[in-house]
Amino acid sequence: MLFDMGEIGAFRPAKLLKISHAFVSHTHIDHFVGFDTLVRLMLNREKALRVFGPPGFLANVRGRLAGYTWNLTEGYPFSVIAAEVHPDRILSQTFRSQQRFLPEEKREAPFTGILEKDSQLKISAVHLDHFIPSLAFALEERFHINVHKERLSERGLSIGRWLKEMKDALWRGEPAEFPLRVPLESARRGEEKVFPLGSLRDTVTLTPGQKIVYVADCRFSEENARRIIQLAGGADLFFCEAGFLDRDRNRAEERGHLTARQAGELARQCRVKKLQVFHFSPKYEKEAEEMFREAEQAFRG
What we know:
The chain has 301 residues and is α/β, with parallel strands linked by helices. It has three domains: 1-111, no CATH class; 113-142 and 209-301, Ribonuclease Z/Hydroxyacylglutathione hydrolase-like (Metallo-beta-lactamase, Chain A, 4-Layer Sandwich); 145-207. Helices cover 28% and strands 29% of the residues. The protein has helices at 13-16, 29-32, 35-42, 57-66, 149-154, 162-172, 222-232, 249-255, 260-270, 288-300; strands at 2-3, 21-23, 48-53, 79-85, 89-96, 107-110, 114-117, 121-129, 133-141, 143-147, 179-183, 192-196, 204-208, 211-215, 237-241, 274-278. The protein has a six-stranded mixed beta sheet with strand order 1-2-3-4-5-6, covered by helices on one side. A six-stranded mixed beta sheet has the order 7-8-9-14-15-16. The longest helix has 13 residues, at 288-300. The model has no long low-confidence stretch (mean pLDDT 94).
């Protein structure tokens, strides 16, 4: 998953090709310019890229794709599935390379705060005010599975792909008798034994899932604060934009940004475990440590 698409060209292509979902807070150029990089990299791949953004997002995606000529892509299997998130509904469209990325018919579904949910993860979003709508996102893991390799070794069980299958079964809530084929450490190559899921539970520990929250550009307002606190409450890791130092609070308000102190205050009210501020104005190029210090002091009270 990718949250915002700035200058992403520095990432290794192998890492970018793993992306299946991208969540865009808003479409100012520094948050959306990387869309072209992703499309170019994935163009001849058999996959679909799901992208989410605020009101007006479908027109932005359509405009980016319409800016290029696609007469040689009819054999490519790649597609973009774009979703435009409104406070009460989600509008989505598919753009297929085989159809020269011409938009298909719009689909509409209600929006209740959740963008994606499966057996492992849930992605939620709220709308914030940046003088335009800006989305903030929360990623929540249902629970975390810790594998005890020493216990596997004690039982003569090999480490391999079957561990992912066991994790998937646990996330799906399969019953104790669910069968799993497990390769034996001391057996001949390829020899396996079937174990019921319940008999393997002593090889893992389930712990509470992590919650990561991403808040990009927004004003410091009572309504924004209320929505951020509701979204980020109890987060393990809170990414929060901090465009300015508090001495420049008036400038921050003019530009629709938070100060480092305001980010720290929000983090404290949210009772998050760790705060990571980012997205500093270029004017603080030599004052990054002061930005971090101001945010941390407010966070720690």
